[in-house]
Every structure is written in C-alpha cells, then in structure tokens.
Amino acid sequence: MSPEEMRTLYYLGMANGNVQEAQQYEHNLVNQARQMHQKVLNDLEGALDYVIRGETEHPNRLDIVKQSMRGFGQSAIPPSVNPVSAASVLPPTASPLQPLSGHQVNGTATTNGAPKALDDLPSTPLPQPPLSTYAIYDRNNRLTTWKGRPVQYIPLPATEGADKAPVPHFQRQDNGDWERIWFPEGMPPANPDAAPDPQRWGEGFAKAYNFVWEKGEFFGGVMPEEPPGHEFVRWDV
C-alpha cells in the first residue's frame, strides 16, 4: 500500500469518526513489514534464491502488471494480492477486480446489504453542508459545538507540534474520546497542486468519489487512480 492510499484511509476514518481502524491497519502493515525484513535477514541465501526464481514462479509481479494491462473485468488477481495496490480507477460501466469490502454484483456494489450502482450517482459534486449547520462559535470566535458534540481546545503532542496553540477537538459520541477537528473553518481554498489531471478526470472519477462521500468506502474496494477534485471532498471533519 502506498503512502497516498494510507492517507486516504485516514481521511475516510476521520470523516466516519473511526480513525482508530486506519491506525490499526497501519500498525498491522508495519508489523508485517518488520516480520518480512527479519525473515530476509535470517535467510539471506534463501532471499537471493527467491529473487532469482521470481520470474519463473507464478503468480509474480510481472503477472500483476500483465493482468492490469488487459483491462478491468478480464483478469483474476490472486486473493493474496491487495487489489488497491494492483488496480486503478474503473470507468462507470467496468467491474473492479476484487473488492476489499462489499460485493460486486452486476455493476453494483453491495454496502451494508444495499446495492448502489455508480450509474445511480450524479457526476456533479454533492452539496457541501454549510458550516453553520454543524459548527457553533462563541463571541470570541472559538468553537463550542461540532456536530452537536462539545468542543475542547487541546494541545498537540510533541510529535505533531506541541509548540503550537491548542487546536479544537470534539468528543466522540461512541466512546467519549476527544478527536481533532481538522477543518474548523470548513472548506479551505483549493490547492492547485493537489488537483486531479484534467485530461484524465471524467464522470467515472466523479461518481466514484460521490460514492465515497455517501458510503465512506471505495466502490467495490477499488481506490481511484486520480485524487478527488476539491469540491468532491468532505470538509466537515
């Protein structure tokens, strides 16, 4: 999994109030990497032999590249391969390779038992909720309430800038923990450096990110290859 994919999981976790799941996923990946590194160090000759035999043993990375080149819906990547790393965004009518969550059924993704087709979603940005509908400020322009939950200004830990001023956190309803509010002033100005490639952006990307907006997960578990447009991102997190 790339850093961009991991960052996206964190964004989705923050939007859904469940960042702990992304943290646990990252922790598991780090542990797996450490175990693999230790395995290589404990058997350097075996690791070298594995690299030499890699081209003739299947499935291997060359197989993944060939599968991806053939197009979506025509390949069957082995279950051991992370489809997020092996695939890019799908057109509206294409079927993803192997979902991470939900089930792909006749061009629809089953989420919590309810099918939702990309064709059912608009290709225009969904309306951003006005800041006044979920944030309340006092006369000193400090947040007091966020989505109906109390707000406290808490100093950042040393690893995140303890020398800076305290930042607002809201109290989660499910477990009472305090979670940071990343955009207390709502939608920020657009950053052109983070914009998707206009030559590649199309309805498929727009509908895929509208699905993320509504469901909090990627359609069929496949992460789009292009980043979302500024107006396709939820900023109430």
Q: Over all CA atoms, what is the radius of gyration?
A: 21 Å
* Class derived from helix and strand content: alpha+beta
Tell me, briefly, the overall form: globular
Helix share bin:
25-40%
Task: Tell me what portion of residues adopts beta-strand conformation.
Answer: 5-15%
Mean pLDDT: 75
Uncertain ranges = 71-115
Give the SSE order as H and E letters.
HHHHHEEEEEEEEH
Output the strand order for the largest sheet.
4-5-6-7-8
**Largest sheet, strands/sense/barrel:** 5 strands, antiparallel
Terminal residue distance: 24 Å
Q: Got a strand count? A: 8
Number of helices: 6
Concise overview:
The chain has about 240 residues and is of the alpha+beta class. It is built from 6 helices and 8 strands. The relative contact order is 0.14.
